[in-house]
Amino acid sequence: MLSVLALIAAALAIVLNGLMAGAFHAFSTSVVPGLDAVAADQAAESMRSMNRKILNPRFLSAFVLAPVASVAAGGLVLPLGQTGAAVAFFAAGAVYFVGSLMVTGAVNVPLNNALEAGEVQWQGFSPRWTRWNTLRTVSSVISLLLLVAGLYFWR
Fold first, then answer.
1. Would you say the C-alpha torsion 25, 31, 34, 39 has a positive or negative sign?
2. pTM of the predicted model, to two decimals?
């Protein structure tokens, strides 16, 4: 039973990390560059609207539960003697937590709030926000690779 729960947690972690990697990637490679191609006031208003709409249960669930599922998978395989898999799953959770959750709270959300309040102009917002969002993308992809490595070690 424990191995079934571990497999479910690992699969959920892979799906959630994949969703987040895709969402972050889409913003850095198409959404923000698309906004950069229109007038700055239109770009800023569009981003403000997206920032308001992204705060929904579907996005927030994937965003917050990705590292939880990774750590749960690690905790569930550890008693099964799967130390290598557990370490990879724990590392996936840690990388996502630092590179995605903490970066979001420390940089992207404050930038979003500054844009919302009119404290920053689009030209100052876009490059910095995208750089840090790309770090969130890379962190999510690394987490995803660590989860796959965990499955490999578990085999």
1. negative
2. 0.94
